[in-house]
Design brief:
mainly beta; 22-stranded antiparallel beta barrel; five-stranded mixed β-sheet; 4 helices; 39 strands; 5% helix; 57% strand
């Protein structure tokens, strides 16, 4: 606890200093640094080449958006051997993971600024996909983006924690072929092939194909078998018209995973156990299938205008026999509940969009306008929820549970969302610009509700120099009402949709040798509150949850070989405007939200051997309350990760070796995802052929 207390102010001081640097560093002679054939890809400090498709705002540089956006590129994913979304955003202090690497996320893999993302807060190439019980494969992604806060104007309905957008690997202009094998503790073996290039007359056609599989025993005693395939194609039909196609498929079978842990009626936590302790129940499993097919035509009309039309189909399927463990005393005793369920979801989305620039007198306009139509259909089978026994946290369970439920599925939901959106960013001169936009949504949840919201956004931006953007923005988002879970008396009810509102003030600075981002925000969201009645527990909407905070992060090349980065997030999350029925929770901290989170990370190109590098990450997680009454607190903790990489030449081909370790000190802790991750080693070797 003492080390955590010392780390927090250090992180704050470092982040603020990085955010407030007044001038860029330069190389001694101003010349670009020569890169050797064996030099590893370092984590990119400047975000100049970082672009994102921000929905209704179109395609623009991250630096030129009036919202906080976090982007993790291919280099960082490969350097840290990342296999889950939470690990990808490890160096973003506002993001915490909701699920361990080899467990099924019940709703969302991550939480941002203290707010869960929902299972439908995820996109692949801008198309809505489901994260229910699974994650989309990072192995076939070029980058993953997090738009922080409400994304209603940019993407339509969604929870205000943010929107994740995965960007798939695209065809390469030059031929490439790589193969990789890896091993991860306890005994998961993986292999991948990645091939790309162009062919045809004047290289008209492009392709990128990836195949990946991992299989073996996980660190917590489960078994994983995951297969991934992706294909990206394009055709340059003319100098100005390009056709694209993307397909992604993932099959993931996870058996005998660790239970999903909950606390019930506790004011004190039991002693935590290591994440590698096997508390699984034989016979259980969580199997998923996820797929995406999309196609688009892109027309570069002239230098200032471009248009696109796209269509996509995504689906998600799951078959579940899962264990929920409810710990109800400090000795670690718990109820063992089995939950059998299964279902399928399908999304079909069509969109047409026009982007362009024009002048009206002295004013320069950047406009985006479009229409979209989306349908979402769900099928469910009858669920089975049963108490099957008791267990103890510190003893291996001795019971078994095999699935007995029906697999007959019936249609359970259907939603239709139609939208018209337009935005105009007006450059008024002297570095100032203003943004105004609105999205009209016709949203129908058949058999439940039909609503017609208009979600606006407004922003003012100022660029004193090209590398700096100062901004203030306001955005609204409509959040579809959740279906109440099985733990409540009103299980199955669909809550009303709610509107979230966010104000944000921030600064983005991107220079060749350093970058920094600072944002202060205030977000209001409708609150879902547990109400205790004589008959049992109800989930009701009452008042708001208020999230006010400041986040700061940055990185700097102290030398050509050494990069240092860090960040800190301070958050004040409270329940407000509650009715007399829930007045006891007024002003309490919202569940699952820490006041402080921080991170330090470093990358060093070691001088002793050409092609050798090392990295280290220290991540601080603040304490958080488990319940709205603030009677049970999960304590803070700090984790350390580290790794090395070595690139060599073999028969004129690059070979890259990597080794990494998570939770270096093997810390035992309770996290928002339940039992924390154990110390985990991973190694891999990649051949660029």
């Amino acid at each position: 606890m003492q080390s955590a207390a010392l780390l927090r102010p250090t992180l704050l001081a470092l982040s603020l200093s990085l955010a407030c640097v007044a001038q860029a560093q330069t190389t001694p002679d101003g010349a670009p640094r020569t890169r050797s054939a064996t030099e590893l890809d370092a984590i990119t400090v400047t975000g100049e080449r970082a672009h994102t498709d921000t929905g209704a705002l179109g395609d623009r540089a991250v630096r030129d958006t009036p919202f906080a956006i976090s982007v993790v590129g291919r280099e960082a994913i490969e350097q840290r051997q990342v296999i889950s979304l939470g690990e990808a955003f490890l160096t973003d202090p506002s993001v915490v993971t909701q699920v361990s690497a080899y467990a099924s996320g019940w709703s969302s893999p991550i939480r941002n600024r203290g707010i869960d993302l929902s299972y439908d807060s995820y996109r692949v190439n801008g198309l809505q996909v489901s994260s229910w019980g699974t994650e989309w494969p990072l192995e076939v992604m070029e980058q993953v983006e997090l738009l922080k806060g409400p994304g209603g104007f940019m993407y339509g309905f969604g929870q205000p924690g943010g929107i994740i957008n995965y960007v798939t690997k695209k065809p390469t202009d030059t031929p490439m072929l790589s193969a990789q094998v890896g091993w991860r503790e306890q005994g998961v073996v993986s292999g991948q092939v990645d091939v790309g290039g162009r062919f045809g007359n004047e290289d008209m056609f492009g392709y990128r194909f990836n195949a990946y599989q991992e299989k073996g025993e996980t660190f917590n005693g489960g078994e994983v078998d995951r297969k991934v395939g992706s294909l990206s194609l394009d055709a340059r039909l003319t100098d100005s018209v390009t056709w694209t196609f993307d397909g992604v498929f993932q099959e993931r079978d996870l058996s005998e995973e660790s239970p999903q842990w909950y606390f019930r009626g506790l004011t004190q936590l039991p002693r935590p156990i290591g994440g590698d302790v096997d508390n699984s129940i034989p016979g259980t499993y969580y199997d998923t299938r996820s797929s995406l097919l999309s196609t688009a035509l892109n027309w570069q009309i002239n230098e200032d205008w471009k248009a696109s039309v796209s269509y996509g189909y995504t689906s998600s399927w799951n078959d579940v026999n899962k264990i929920f463990a409810y710990i109800d005393d400090v000795n670690g005793d718990y109820d063992i509940n089995s939950y059998e369920l299964g279902g399928k979801s399908e999304w079909k989305q069509a969109q047409a969009m026009l982007q362009g620039r024009f002048q009206t007198g002295p004013l320069s306009h950047q406009v985006v306008a479009g229409v979209s139509h989306q349908t979402a259909t769900g099928w469910d089978r009858p669920y089975e929820w049963n108490l099957i026994g008791r267990g103890n946290l510190y003893q291996r369970p001795t019971i078994r549970h095999d699935a007995v439920g029906s697999r007959v599925m019936t249609r359970s939901s259907e939603t239709i969302q139609q939208a018209v959106f337009v935005s105009d960013t007006v450059d008024v001169g002297r570095g100032w610009s203003v943004l105004a936009g609105a999205r009209y949504n016709d949203f129908e949840n058949k058999g439940s509700y039909h609503t017609y919201p208009v979600t606006p956004t407004y922003a003012v931006m100022y660029k004193p120099v090209e590398a700096v953007t100062l901004y203030t923005s306001y955005v609204e988002s409509l959040e579809a009402g959740n279906r109440v879970g099985s733990d409540y008396l009103n299980a199955g009810d669909v809550l009303d949709p709610t509107i979230s509102k966010q104000f944000e003030v921030g600064a983005k600075m991107e220079f060749p040798r350093w970058n920094a981002n600072v944002a202060a925000f205030r977000l209001e969201r409708g609150a879902n509150i547990d109400r205790i009645t004589p008959a049992g527990l109800l989930l009701v909407q009452d008042g708001i949850t208020l999230y006010e905070g400041i986040e700061a992060s940055g990185a700097v090349h102290l030398t050509d070989a050494f990069t240092l980065g860090g960040g800190v997030t301070w958050l004040d999350p409270t329940y407000d405007k509650l009715s007399p029925n829930n007045a006891s929770q007024q002003g309490n901290r919202t569940t699952g939200a820490a006041r402080w989170n921080g991170v330090l990370h470093a990358n060093y190109q070691l001088p002793w051997v050409e092609g050798l590098e090392a990295y280290a990450v220290a991540r601080y997680y603040g304490d958080m309350y488990y319940d709205a009454d603030n009677t049970l607190k999960l304590p803070d903790y700090t984790l350390f990760n580290a790794g090395v990489g070595y690139r060599m030449q073999w028969n004129e081909h690059a070979v890259t070796w990597r080794a990494s370790v998570e939770n270096l000190t093997n810390k035992k802790y309770w996290s928002n995802a339940g039992i924390g991750l154990p110390r985990t080693f991973a190694v891999s070797v990649r051949f660029d052929l």
